Amino acid sequence: MEGILKIDSIEKYYGSKSSLTKALDGISFEVDEGEYVAIMGASGSGKTTLLNCISTIDKVTSGHIYVAGKDITKLKGNALNKFRREELGFVFQDFNLLDTMTAYENIALALSIQGMGAAKIDGRIREISSALGIEEVLKKYPYQMSGGQKQRVAAARAIITEPKLVLADEPTGALDSKSSKMLLESFKYLNEAIPATILMVTHDAFTASYAKRVIFIKDGKIFNEIIRGPKSRKEFFNEIIDVISLLGGDAGDAL
Amino acid sequence: MLYKLALKNIKKSVKDYSIYFFTLVIGVIIFYVFNALDSQTAMLNVSDSAREIMVLMNTFLSGVSVFVAIVLGALIIYASNFMIKRRKKEFGVYLTLGMSKRRMSTILLTETFLIGVISMVIGLFLGVVMSQFMSVAVAHMFEADMSKFTFVFSPKAAIKTIIFFGVMYIVVMIFNTVAVGRCKLIDLLYGGKKNEKLKVHNPILCLIVFIASCAVLGRAYYLVTTGFNVDQMFTPKELVKVIIMGSVSTFFIFWSVSGSILTIATKMKGFYLKKLNSFTLRQFSSKANTMVLSMTVICLMLFLTIVLLGSAISLTYSMNATIKENIPKDLQVIRQVPEGETIPESTLTETLTADGLDMSSLKDIEDMNVYSSEGLTMGESMGEYIESALNYYTFVTEDATEDIMSVSDYNKLAKVFRNEPIELKEDEYAIFADLTIVTEARDNALAAGRKITYRGRELSPAFDKCINSPFQLNINKCNSGVIVVPDSLVDGATVTLKMFFADYVAENKEDRETEEKYINDFMESKYQTGDITEWRIFYTTKEVMKAGSVGLGAMATFVSLYVGVIFLIASAAILSLKELSESADNIERFAVLRRIGTDEKMIDRALFKQIGLFFFFPMLFAVIHSIFGLRAASKILEIFISDGMGLAIFVTALIIVVIYGGYFFVTYFTSRRIIKG
After folding, report:
1. Which of A140, B469, B487, B511 is the most buried (most CB within 10 A)?
2. Chain A residues within 8 A of B198 when measuring between CB atoms
3. What is the pLDDT of residues B331-350, one digit of tens each?
């Protein structure tokens, strides 16, 4: 398998010389095609900064990020936008759906900004929405949906463009446990059926336990990495909890 | 501390709300300039007749100021309401931090006060500068001597402006205090998140309402154009009826269109799902839906602006043109007697000489008679063709009697108006007229070879249409037609009118003024004493007419400019403020678009379209209304407006493009800056 994402010793500094904050301090790892990776860490560990750098919302201070062999730290302006809309899919903690538009239109937007025709768009949406079980909410507005439905719509929007990489930032952060479970099942399905490469940032052990691999970050550095392998989800969850207690924080969050 | 906070708030929002501030400043400028016109004109050295017109104009303008004040007042209150709404979150934070509502009111009060004072100072300063230019414009119009320029400051206008805007700001302060007192913390903090229910009306209902509104609007259009009748139109009842029909149908057209535009657009999938079209249309329709009433008001204001400016400009233009054409002589004297009396046989030249007028100061004198038609009516001379000219003017009826002139007298008149002389055979007649609608009807009759009988002789038309000529010196084209017959036919006929035209011998301006004064004094002391019903001899001079027409034109231009510009900035400012007040929500929406990878160019274009649609929508209907409105206006003013509609439309369009377009672009760029964060 070819590495879809390659992160090569990236650093991200904030502040001035006198008071320097190293949000990311020399992180390197690779994600292969079809992988499902979770990044865990306490608040302030640098995991969101990492995601922002990969998603080109933020720029690294040094180091390189390769997506499908292309160095995205060198991209500028419209090339960045093009990369973002063609190679990446996003799922955010607060959904980021447009409140004035229906679920259908929100999903369609991801394709129409790529210049796809209406007939093709319609077919794709039908397909993806039946896979994610959101057919009945397609005509609804975000304010008429539950949190879980909103997040699955957001997931549909992220995946419909067939991106090389789906980035999810605390996707279950605003969801109750039942909705979280449904969303994670959807992610699992997308990862196995399509197969979509997913990189997810979370501080919730339950959420992370759905991934195939978990990378732990502490103070801007990689602290540990565990692979699920043939283990059951329950076993994997316990293993994650163990690492978290080793990390020394956030154990409360895990429950 | 509170003062500091208020000042900081203003500084922070000055960029976002530059539109509001500019509107206030422009409001102050215009208010001052037009109210200062009084003092500006007082300085000018003009003739007595022009002076009278100026006084009338200023009285009229100060009346209009009351109306303008109401419009501006409404705008300021509306705008400040927007500002409060937009700053809900900020107030919420103040309240959570434990600030009392009273202190918050004080902050707002300080802000309003500061904005008021600053805008007033800047506005007054610019107003004083602008009003100097205004003096030049007025002087030019009234042909006043501007060789010595005097700087004029009108304390009266300044005080009036300060009092009016002062009162306005106090009202705003009261409104704000009440608004702050009423609000709840939860609404303040989460007000932005409250989801506006999207109103999508039943499409069938929309269609029915739309068709019904169009029908009513069509009926209103018909009433003011084809089905138009001057006498009826001037009854306030009719006018109010048409205005209500137009306004209500406009409202419902906006209601139905903004309620169904999405339903229609979503059906056109290929278009709707193209690029950001769906997003743009959603943004537009949600705004249009919540602003149906405001849009209607804006549309009507724009409509009034176009009609006012358009007709005023073409009025001024035609008047200047008709002065040259219709008033070629310096003096006109007419002898007319009530029915039953007979006119003495002597010509006016003989009468005036006998009464002591110094004829040596006059040249190119022409005397002529007008004879009784002896029963020949308009109905007879026009036959069935009169139909199309009926119902416009009270003096055009089937029973109205015609006026008769001999061909040699007409040729004298032709000389006066610089027309070609004509010849008539013994059995021919001709007609000269210049009132469009009647001329058209008469042309049809002449072309059909309509025969008339005068004093027992049957006459056929010598030409197949009317000669285009005025009857007397007049700034308006109001000659409904005079029949010219062979000389032999007027022998022994009853004279109903005697006319006399002459030019002054004097050539330079000063001598002409002396002459003018001499003529005026002579005429008024000799013939125009006592009751007007006792008068038998009437006179008019070119100078008097010119002053009157320039005055009328100037008055129309100033009033329409005053009201028009205020309406324009009011409508544009409302649209602009509404757009900007939503920029907070828009920041988030455009950020989402950016996050999913939309190109900056596409975003800019979407924003441009969104704001453009919002500005274009009311303007579109205003323009459609205006097409009919201007037609009606030119019909009502037909005797004044002969020409210049093209020029008027061009100038009006220019004014609108500059002001309305200016607001649009400022809104777009401000909005773009806001969403770029």
Report:
1. B469
2. 100, 141
3. 999 888 777 778 888 888 88
